[in-house]
Amino acid sequence: MIKKMAASLCLLLSLTTLAQEGTSSPYSFYGIGDIKFKGAVDTRTMGGLNVFSDSIHINLQNPAHLASLKLTAFSVGATYATTKFQTETDEGKARRTSLDYLAVGIPAGKLGFSLGLVPYSSVGYKIQDLTEGDSPVYSRYTGVGGVNKVFTGIGYQLTKKINIGADIQYNFGTIETQNLRYQTGVDLVENGTREKNESDIQGFNVDFGATYQTKVNSKHTFFGSLAYTPESTLRLNNSRNIAVVLITSGTTSVVESQDIDVADTEIKLPSKLAIGTGYGEVKKWLVGGEVTLINNSVMSNRFVDIEGATFENSVRYSLGGYYIPNYNSYSSYFKKITYRAGLRYENTGLVIQNKSITDFAATLGFGLPLSGTFSKINIGLEMGKRGTQYYNLVEENYFNISVGLSFSDKWFVKRKFD
Hints:
Blueprint: H1 2-16, E1 34-35, H2 41-44, E2 72-86, E3 91-108, E4 111-131, E5 137-157, E6 162-184, E7 189-215, E8 221-229, E9 232-248, E10 251-260, E11 265-269, E12 272-281, E13 285-294, E14 309-311, E15 314-323, E16 338-352, E17 355-369, E18 376-387, E19 395-409
Antiparallel strand pairs: 1-4, 2-3, 2-19, 3-4, 4-5, 5-6, 6-7, 7-8, 7-9, 8-12, 9-10, 9-11, 12-13, 13-15, 14-16, 15-16, 16-17, 17-18, 18-19
């Protein structure tokens, strides 16, 4: 299993080197960027449904599920994203490959433990604006960086029907933004000003969870889940540099620069409450739904002088499930595949020009078992739309392909023979 882990790491790390920015969305201009993490591939392809306690997959959004692990699990996932941007007058395309998560889950009787890394949010935008007049002024806005989470969690089987759990997360990262303003001069020389901002981010937050399942009859089971994240604070160590620049044939040279003292700030991570239910036959099929309430109104921009957007409380609806024709089939590999599908709709909480930015997606997934093991390759497809092309905003039509590798095996077993 160690060799499989090493091979998967090499594969996914080579994929992520294709693009260092995890997003190309202009909406990552606001707050701490575009929230990238939406769960492991197996749950993400069910519209984000997190009600099922899986014995071989690590659930990264409700720590109570850790108590259901029966095998040590190593999970890693990545996404290749293509996005088409549209406004009323223009359009463009972008592609990104990013690492989604890296985690280990270890069962220990009624307990389950996890440790991992999640790239939580990402900033990666390039925006140009033109103010027309006798002397046209161009503005170019760029940003890179994001927030990562290192976490450790524990789940406990309180009764045969109830699991509880909690995890703690350390958030860290750097966000760099730049605003370049210039006017067209003579002899292809453009002069202007450049403002650079940098925020080093750190802080802690915790998650709590509980799950419930009970037999309805000899075949069917009812599932319930509850996950709660209290509000937390991220501390931002801010710096700013102002420069007078000359731009000649696309090359920017600094004439004079000065560091500006700016106050260190804090930004709130919103509280979140997710409630879900499901119904189905274990190892056969499941359907369920989940509602997530997020107190995004506490969010703010990184610098108080950034205008044009506010945040509101948001809600996300998830509907999905899976189907396995025959998980123990010896005659057909296709009957052992887990087929997943789902729908997701959310009000993201971002409001621009009094218009709420919404996101809708349809998902499809396949859990491909590896012969002779409990391990799986999970493949996910996601097609969706965020925002609108009207009201001077941007509509994003995206298609994502996600690959998750989940290796499950027994660890820490004493050998009977040397």
